[in-house]
TrEMBL record:
Cellular component GO terms, alphabetical: membrane
Protein name: Quinol oxidase
Key words, A-Z: Membrane, Transmembrane, Transmembrane helix
Membrane topology, from the record: Multi-pass membrane protein
Transmembrane segments: 14-35, 55-73, 79-101, 113-137
Native source species: Haloferax profundi
Compartment(s) where it occurs, according to its Swiss-Prot or TrEMBL record: Membrane
Pfam families: DoxX (PF07681)
Signal sequence, start to end: none
Length: 143
């Protein structure tokens, strides 16, 4: 059974909608970037030791596009937020392992690591709220 997410008023409903759209759009754009730069990203994934790097780039790009659009539109919110969270949980320590790169790369990798941790936090918030009906959402599926 789903309950409706209730905020203090319409202004907070709009703020939640804006947060969903901004977060989801950035995530979906990251996924599109996987498709637009498959060769470059596959090379990086191979360098980091990912098996089947091209498949991994394409598959993860699909996860991000699905997850980002799902969060933005409120479609299958649990699956959408779960896909984003899973991607970030796996990719963050694998690709941005600042503790294991040469010193001249550590700051850049740490920055990317921390950005991903922040996005993971956002994805987990949306996942936690996926069992309630989101204001201004298309509202298809709870899973």
């Amino acid at each position: 059974m789903s309950t409706t997410l209730q905020f203090a008023g319409a202004g907070t409903d709009v703020a939640f909608l804006a947060a969903r759209v901004l977060f989801g759009a950035v995530i979906a754009f990251m996924g599109l970037n996987h498709f637009m730069n498959v060769d470059q990203m596959s090379g990086y994934a191979e360098m980091k030791g990912l098996p089947a790097p091209r498949f991994g780039v394409v598959f993860s790009g699909g996860m991000l596009v699905f997850g980002g659009l799902g969060i933005a539109a409120g479609v299958f919110p649990a699956l959408a937020a779960g896909a984003v969270a899973l991607f970030l949980l796996v990719s963050t320590p694998l690709f941005h392992n600042f503790w294991a790169v040469p010193e001249d790369q550590q700051q850049s990798e740490m920055t990317d690591f921390l950005k991903n941790v922040v996005m993971l936090g956002g994805a987990l918030v949306f996942l936690a709220l996926s069992s309630v009906t989101w204001p201004y959402a298309i509202g298809v599926g709870l899973f």
